[in-house]
TrEMBL record:
Keywords assigned: Membrane, Quinate metabolism, Transmembrane, Transmembrane helix, Transport
InterPro entries: MFS_dom, MFS_sugar_transport-like, MFS_Sugar_Transporters, MFS_trans_sf, Sugar/inositol_transpt, Sugar_transporter_CS
UniProt name for this protein: Quinate transporter
Main subcellular location: membrane
GO molecular function, one term: carbohydrate:proton symporter activity
Source organism per UniProt: Letharia lupina
């Protein structure tokens, strides 16, 4: 439900801005040029501004008060923001305030939820359960896109109800988050870390549906205690400032952190959030004007992106590899963005009121969907996967704060500037996004090593190597293979020695 808060809010707002009832109520109908761009930018981007600070402020709160209580507060805060927007009654300032509150809640919850799931899940299915976060996010985005299309068809544009319905639906996932989290237990791992081992055992017994004294419960509690002791020995209990210093001063850590932050920046520079938040306006700029037409095209865009993301996460991410997926996706995105830039420049669709619906226009629509496909295959999920798997345990939480804040800051920049770019540089908007993907390919090729199939301790080997990304992975594979060969040789020697002293050792081992 926290993922649904995030996904729905990011999808519905762009279409809501095009609804005639919303434009009339909040003065967008009479605004033009820079004034209209300013209103759109402020309404949308205040959400990202709130999310940026939410991701920063939540860290000390969740460390002190736990995951469950913090998520309950996130749901309540999101509902306050949604109610403020509904009660705005034409005052755009109330919309701004409400979106700041919903942004704070989403920025905080987007950091906590994957942690809570991973800390509460059985190890065997932990990855799949964390992956549900991305799945629900994509599904809720589809709901947000199609919600606007539904009200534009079935609710008269003269009624405020037309814009109030999509705005009011925000309270559904947030309310469900509060209600359902009320019945959920606190993270057992957080309880162990807080010195509440008995409560952790009771919560784990409930989650696993096993007796308190079951050997599996004891094993998982003991494993968590050993892991926390190991993390503390590596510096996990140090001050936040000491962790920040460790992240930026050690070359291997600094390299990982800078790559993660750069991936988040380039992810947004690809243009995806311009399409997420302003897709109806972008479809209109291509020449498909009319609220119903642009909202329908936006709904199909959401379906393409969601379907491709689900396929990637469920079937391809560990087969195709992170690096290959990023390179393939970037190439496809470049073709799509450069075509859109060239078409809008030739057709003058940004400035002309009568753009012919010829073959070029329909290819432009296809290119938007093609971009959604290639983006979902690469930039949509891979940066998040990379950041979740490469950081050392002792500083992982602090590094994730930096990468998550980079994501929200980059979103804010793109979402705020897109209306101005579409007004002032028109077709250059698409050329900028396409060129950013060219930069992304160069960056991936030179600096982004393949991390597929590596254990956490092997990440340290990978990022201690010098040279371009491909050379790093080759050298890492060689070192790992040498160590395995040495370990196998030592095991054979030990086995032969043990067989001479006690042949039953070999039998038991087999």
């Amino acid at each position: 439900m926290g993922a649904a808060m995030f996904g729905y809010d990011s999808a519905f707002i762009g279409g809501a801005l095009t609804l005639p009832s919303f434009q009339k109520r909040f003065g967008l109908e009479s605004a033009h040029g820079t004034k209209l761009a300013n209103l759109k930018a402020n309404i949308v981007s205040t959400f990202q501004a709130g999310a940026f600070f939410g991701a920063i402020l939540v860290y000390p709160v969740t460390e002190k008060f736990g995951r469950r209580l913090t998520l309950l507060l996130c749901g309540l805060l999101f509902n306050l923001g949604a109610i403020a927007q509904l009660a705005s009654s034409g005052h755009v300032g109330a919309i701004y305030a409400g979106r700041v509150l919903t942004g704070l809640a989403v920025g905080a919850s987007s950091l906590i939820i994957p942690v809570y799931i991973s800390e509460s899940s059985p190890p065997a299915i932990r990855g799949r359960l964390v992956g549900l976060f991305e799945c629900f996010l994509q599904v809720s985005q589809v709901i947000g896109f199609w919600m606007n299309y539904g009200v534009s068809l079935h609710v008269p544009k003269t009624l405020d109800k037309q814009w109030q319905i999509p705005f009011s639906f925000q309270v559904v996932p947030a309310s469900l988050l509060v209600i359902l989290m009320f019945f959920q237990p606190e993270s057992p791992r957080w309880l162990v870390k807080a010195g509440k081992a008995d409560q952790a055992r009771r919560n784990l017994s409930r989650l696993r549906q096993l007796p308190l004294d079951h050997e599996y419960i004891s094993w998982e509690i003991n494993t968590a205690q050993r892991q926390i002791e190991a993390e503390n020995s590596l510096g996990a209990n140090r001050s936040v400032w000491a962790k920040v210093q460790q992240a930026f001063t050690l070359p291997g850590n600094r390299q990982r952190l800078l790559i993660g932050m750069a991936l988040m920046l380039l992810q947004n520079m690809s243009g995806i959030n311009a399409l997420n938040y302003y897709s109806p306006a972008i479809f209109a700029a291509i020449g498909f004007s009319g609220t119903d037409v642009s909202l329908l095209a936006t709904g199909v865009f959401g379906l393409v992106k969601a379907t491709t993301t689900l396929i990637l996460m469920l079937f391809l991410i560990d087969r195709l590899g992170r690096r290959r997926a990023m390179l393939i996706g970037s190439c496809g995105g470049i073709v799509a963005m450069y075509y859109l830039g060239g078409y809008t420049a030739q057709s003058h669709s940004f400035t002309s009121e009568h753009v012919p619906k010829d073959g070029g226009a329909y290819i432009a629509i296809l290119m938007v969907y093609l971009f959604a496909f290639f983006y979902a295959l690469s930039w949509n999920g891979v940066p998040w996967v990379f950041c979740s798997e490469v950081f050392p345990t002792a500083i992982r939480s602090v590094c994730l704060v930096f990468t998550t804040c980079s994501q929200w800051l980059a979103q804010f920049i793109i979402v705020y500037s897109t209306p101005y770019m579409m007004t002032n540089i028109t077709y250059g908007t698409f050329l900028l996004f396409g060129t950013s993907l060219v930069v992304g390919i160069v960056f991936i090729y030179l600096f982004f090593p393949e991390t597929k199939g590596l254990l956490l301790e092997e990440m340290d080997i990978l990022f201690s190597q010098r040279g371009p990304a491909t050379a790093k992975r080759r050298e890492t594979d060689r070192i790992i293979q040498d160590r395995r060969n040495d370990g196998h040789a030592q095991a054979v020697v030990a086995e032969k020695r043990d067989e001479k002293t006690d042949p039953m050792i070999h039998v038991e081992a087999v």
